[in-house]
Write a structure and sequence with these properties.
The protein is mostly beta strands. It folds into three domains: 172 residues, no CATH class; 158 residues, no CATH class; 93 residues, Immunoglobulin-like, CATH 2.60.40. Helices cover 5% and strands 58% of the residues. The strands form four sheets. Strands 1, 2, 3, 4, 5, 6, 7, 8, 9, 10, 11 and 12 form a twelve-stranded mixed sheet that branches. Strands 13, 14, 15, 16, 17, 18, 19, 20, 21 and 22 form a ten-stranded mixed sheet that branches. Strands 26, 27, 29, 30, 31 and 32 form a six-stranded antiparallel sheet that branches. It is extended, with a radius of gyration of 29 Å. The two termini are 32 Å apart.
């Protein structure tokens, strides 16, 4: 998981004399193993800047930040420093402590490669200038050892990195946790579908990755919640039918916007053809006011409709405010997408005779087309089909039967035959694909 340390444009200019500039020191992060963590608190004690001529300037920091709050461009201000103008080539970060908690509640063992982090990065501070600098830290798992290491990432650091300032103070997070029983409620989040062009579809599978809510105080303090890539079939959610996506613990208060992040839309029309369904953007935005009270549960329905764009046989999905909110009827259903219909139909057969002590060839097809990249497993060994959908392997001299398993995407099939020239022509057994559970 990557943490980003950013020197961003100052919000309050420091008094600077001739030959000095102002540095605002931020912390942020980049993706790595960060999703393994519920919290990853890093305490920064000192920052050392090394100029091009080797002079070192060390400044105190004494700030603890939770890197899990700093995904993407989010950055938290650590401190503002006044430094001599000139060229710099290194930045050292002294860390006083790391406290990591995994998503399953276990404590994480997170180590530094040394007593401080070193970043080799050239940048310049002009006389009287404010400098934005990002110091990126990545946390990675050390093999499969359940241990983690943090280190700086030069390619994501420097003076030209995007910064979205937020407060990721771990102290502030701890204070919130202490009072959450008094200030939090629950939001039961449902997905539904308003009728429009939905009757054109046999299936309309939508994969949701995150849900975000934004308070009604005109701030940009959006809170996002993971939903583990849930895929639902909107054809199962007509009218009042709604499926529960997740129940979130949420701060009490008034909210005005809800966002649904969608990673994929897969539509099959009633005639069996694939549908071209597009999102207006990577996420759906719904302007809908609702209130969450402490120690209470609110049912919220997010209604999505699909509409055809003219008579083009292309479709858009979008939220429907009039059918969304906390006061709409709910007929709870599962709504999970059944991927079985989307699995490829795969068949396999032996090519020619199969004889012990010689080579055997298996052909894999889908419809009338050869399947390249299918996995054919024989006697514990995996083989991959070529562009002609075929794979060849040796049959042991003592083999009496040859049985292989074929896997491709979400489908699996088996084929077997006697290992003798006399019976192979009439003894081949070929099976169609079964969908993997």
């Amino acid at each position: 998981m990557a943490g980003m340390l950013a020197l961003a444009g100052c919000s309050t200019a420091l008094d600077s004399g001739s030959g000095t500039g102002t540095v605002n020191f931020y912390v942020s992060d980049q993706p790595g193993a960060l999703e393994d963590f519920d919290h990853l608190n890093v305490t920064i004690t000192e920052v050392t800047f090394v100029s091009a001529d080797g002079n070192r300037t060390t400044r105190d920091a004494n700030e603890t930040v939770d890197l899990t709050q700093l995904e993407g461009a989010n950055s938290s201000l650590v401190e503002q420093y006044e430094l001599e103008s000139g060229d710099y080539e290194k930045v050292f970060l002294s860390v006083g402590g790391i406290d990591g908690t995994l998503t399953n509640g276990d404590s994480a063992e997170v180590q530094l490669p040394s007593d401080r982090l070193q970043l080799n990065q050239n940048f310049t501070i002009g006389d009287g200038e404010d400098v934005d600098f990002v110091y990126d830290i990545m946390v990675t798992e050390a093999g499969g050892s359940d241990k983690y290491v943090i280190r700086p990432v030069a390619s994501e650091s420097g003076t030209d990195v995007e910064i979205n300032e937020v407060d990721a103070s771990a102290d502030g997070e701890a204070a919130m946790d202490e009072t959450e029983t008094e200030t939090q409620g629950s939001l039961a989040f449902y997905l539904s579908d308003e009728r429009n062009a939905i009757d054109d579809f046999e299936h309309l599978n939508v994969t949701v990755t995150k849900v975000g809510v934004q308070p009604g105080d005109e701030s940009d303090n959006r809170t996002e919640y993971e939903v583990d890539n849930r895929t639902v079939d909107l054809t199962e959610l007509k009218g009042a039918n709604a499926t529960l996506m997740e129940t979130f613990e949420i701060e009490e208060g008034n909210y005005s916007k809800v966002f649904v992040h969608v990673s994929e839309v897969n539509g099959t029309l009633t005639d069996g053809s694939s549908a071209d369904v597009k999102l207006p953007s990577e996420k759906l935005q719904l302007n809908e006011e609702f209130t969450v009270e402490a120690n209470s549960t609110v049912d919220f329905v997010y209604d999505i409709t699909v509409v055809e764009r003219g008579n083009t046989s292309t479709y858009n999905i979008k939220p429907v405010a009039s059918e969304s909110g906390t006061d709409v009827p709910i007929e709870r259903v599962d709504g999970e997408a059944d991927d079985s219909d989307d699995a490829p139909e795969v068949a396999a057969e032996f090519v020619g005779n199969v004889t012990a002590g010689e080579n055997a060839t298996v052909s894999v097809t889908s419809g009338d087309e050869p399947v390249e990249g299918a996995t054919v497993t024989y006697d514990g060994t995996d083989y991959t089909t070529n562009a002609d959908g075929e794979v060849t392997f040796a049959v042991p001299e003592d083999a009496e039967e040859v049985e292989v398993t074929v896997e491709y995407e979400d489908a699996e099939t088996e084929v077997e035959t006697d290992a003798s020239a006399a019976s192979s022509e009439s003894g081949n057994a070929s099976y169609g694909s079964d969908v993997l559970a």
